[in-house]
Amino acid sequence: MNYKRPYYTTVLQRINEQRSKLQVIVGPRQVGKSTLIGQVLEECEIPHESYSSDDVTGVTADWLSQLWESQRLKMEAHSETKRLLVIDEVQKINNWSETVKAEWDRDTREKRELIVVLLGSSRMLIEKGLTESLAGRFELIRMPHWTYPEMRDCFGWSIPQYVFYGGYPGASQYISDEKRWRTYVKDSLIEPSISKDALLNTKITKPQLLRQLFELGCSYSGEILSLTKMIAQLQDAGNVTTLAGYLHLLDECGLLCGLQKYAEDKARKYNSIPKYQVYNSALRSVYCDESFDEVIEDPKIWGRYVESAIGAHLISQAAIVGYSVYYWREKNEEVDFILVRNRKKIAIEVKSGRRTTNKGLSTFAESYNPHRSIVVGSGGLSVEELLTMDLEILFK
Is 90 exceeded by the pLDDT of residue 335? Predict the structure, then answer.
């Protein structure tokens, strides 16, 4: 693929700087982390080598230490003043963070210019290791799912295509055959994310329940549904606490989250009924019965898909821009998304094909005095304008 995501420039610049911090690239599966580092290495003039723990059976921390030592020997043998080491899927290695800390600190003491880039697809495992063992030693580069401008520029997609098929570049070649597209997304994108990120490295007592929760949550993306009611629809039901833990795990894997209701009282936020939201709108479409043609021809159905796609965009960009995402609802009045950064609140109501008479936005404005109140759809920003906007602008 010749297309380069914006993060390409950031990574290339940082590896060419003087050694200072580990560079850690993290993001969900199939967002192009390995492709990006491959593009960077093609342009990199520093001697370099790249490895993946996926390529080694029974990989251990010893393998990581031996890898590191081999790079030191090569630097000495070739009289290199600087070298680059890239390690992919590092989270699969037990005690990886402690080993990286020990090796990195040794290079620091010995003033060795061995630049290190780590890649990982499990945000939970990566960030846990970083905070526990590598505090102050790394910079995090978060790569979210592909945005609409990226899918448009790379594949020529329209807004309806992005809303339905989402932001998985690897699936783009199959959209002309919807059955094949659904099969590819389920088997090659979703299954590895759940089996390798959610189940492999976390103790899950009811894996089938987690899968059912994921599928049902995706089909309800954009909907508010209590975990108690969710239990009633699951075959292998556990208790509410178990489901809440599984939903948190799916959130950490960049698949599905439960948005909390906005409230100034933190206890009310944490105890609120979740609003399910996929991180990539493909995850909603793949578990729903409607075809692409049916979705774009029915205004009511289209409105649900648009809201879910906008929500996916907002939560995927949250860590990049630095805000939190909530919803708000009181009785029959609702605001689809509330963005909060510091003390600034942005209220966003989606009116694409439904709820044109909802007064939630004005009621929320009267109660909470948001920095901005925005309508997406009829009478406000177009869907395309929001999906192409630099979200930093909202907080200025």
Answer: yes
